[in-house]
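thought: fold this chain, then report.
action: predict
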Amino acid sequence: MLRSAVASDVELLAELRATVMRADLERLGRYDGHRARQRLRDSFSPQHTSVIMSDGGLAGCVTVRPARGRQWLEHFYLAPHHQGRGLGSAVLRTVLERTDAQGMTVALNVLQGSAARRLYERHGFVVETQDPIDVFMMRPPGAALRVPGGRTEVQEDPDPHDPPRRRR
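observation:
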């Protein structure tokens, strides 16, 4: 499902970003195809990026890099025909299992009004701050996972001396 990115992935991933982000950026009046692609090119970090594979082909990507004592989750994109099938949740669970094992908080930003925000909230992310364009979210290690029906499941906490956290 995940493979390490290589430098030659950059153009495919830049095109994926432009495709996936287009509707949300247009809704916010901020879409510029060149800028959408260039933003990924400028911050592409193969050593921190995984390419999401499905059915033998590229389905998406995700980057998790260290930043200010946290892990920063960015460039998490799934091709439109792979969305809504549980692949994003599976990838996010894998990423969060790794960061939980490291005892690391994960931070990210998502565009205002993006459907991705619900995915992050289901996985224990909470809003730290927001502006008219972005919502900045964070998730402490071992945060609760919300499941359908409003129930909360507590994920195993990496530190047995620190009690599990519940989020609603």
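thought: worth noting. Residues 152-168 have pLDDT under 50 and may be disordered.
final: tokens above.
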